[in-house]
Amino acid sequence: MKNKIGIFPGSFDPITSGHENVILKASELVETLIVAIGENSTKKHLFSIEKREEWVKKTFNKSLNIIVKKYNGLTIDFAKKENASFIFRGLRSSLDFEYEKQIADVNYIMNSEIQTVFLLADKKYGMISSSIVREIIKNNGDASKLLPKSVDILNQ
């Protein structure tokens, strides 16, 4: 897959250690990986898009082939605009697969030139989700063990 562009879309509210793990795996498979921070109209975000972008950029500031961009609209349209050949998605469980497969199938119908690639999160990250992390944060818990070192929730 080298010499290709891939995107890893998400809302990253906030970015977790699980995201970091799968994004680094994806970055090894393409020449350029765009971490695409999308505005999801169905989600109420805890953190501003500017804060989420800052955290993602800090997390991958030493990764030369990872760039961060914000986008609105359909992921498949953003992927086409960026000349991406692949959309990478991380999977933690079979439930993730069922949900992500439906999206991948529709994306393929919309543009068969862009392939979805599923990557498994390492076992130790399998239980981490942004939803769980947000609940911990909202209830004044310590989520630091579930977040990349670059994410400083206390100074948001």
In short:
The protein is α/β, with parallel strands linked by helices. 35% of the residues lie in helices and 20% in strands.
Q: What are the key terms here?
A:
156 residues; alpha/beta; Rossmann fold; five-stranded parallel sheet; 5 strands
Number of domains: 1
Shape annotation: globular
Q: Tell me what portion of residues adopts beta-strand conformation.
A: 15-25%
User: What's the tally of helices?
Assistant: 5
Low-confidence stretches: none
Query: Numbering strands along the chain, what is their spatial order in the largest sheet?
Result: 3-2-1-4-5
Number of strands: 5
Account of the 3D structure:
This protein has 156 residues and is an alpha/beta fold. The chain has one domain (5-155): HUPs (Rossmann fold, 3-Layer(aba) Sandwich). 35% of the residues lie in helices and 20% in strands. The protein is built from five helices and five strands. Strands 3-2-1-4-5 form a five-stranded parallel β-sheet, sandwiched between helices. Helix 2 (49-59) links the parallel strand 2 (32-38) and strand 3 (66-71). It starts with a strand and ends in an 18-residue tail after the last helix.
